[in-house]
Structure to design on (133 residues):
């Protein structure tokens, strides 16, 4: 059984930094498409950043480009989101998500992971990030 557990959220002032971690159990993250999503009150869940199974492709929503960085520590079976220069509009619940493709064709080596939440089969419980102005 796969479990994803996020940590690292909290309250920070605008301009500050936070580092979110998502520890997976039950399956290795090495071969997974993984992403960080966020959902603010009254808004739809949106992709923040993703990394594909090969680790060769990442994707970011425009609003976080240059400020956030996604990475994967395979040895610790952990997905990381480094968030710098935080803004009040980054306030949301942040979720870790994962999906293990059925196949790994070479043609998908540089494929950008899906931005659609329903494409991911496993989700964490979420961690709150609040950025004060």
């Amino acid at each position: 059984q796969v479990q994803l557990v996020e940590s690292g959220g909290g309250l920070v002032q605008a301009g500050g930094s936070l580092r979110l971690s998502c520890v997976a159990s039950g399956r290795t993250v090495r071969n997974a498409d993984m992403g960080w999503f966020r959902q603010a009150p009254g808004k739809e869940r949106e992709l923040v950043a993703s990394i594909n199974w090969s680790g060769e492709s990442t994707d970011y929503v425009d609003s976080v480009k240059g400020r956030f960085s996604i990475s994967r520590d395979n040895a610790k079976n952990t997905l990381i989101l480094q968030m710098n220069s935080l803004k009040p509009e980054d306030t949301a619940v942040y979720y870790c998500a994962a999906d293990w493709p059925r196949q790994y064709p070479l043609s998908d080596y540089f494929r950008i992971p899906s931005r659609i939440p329903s494409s991911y089969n496993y989700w964490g419980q979420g961690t709150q990030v609040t950025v004060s102005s």
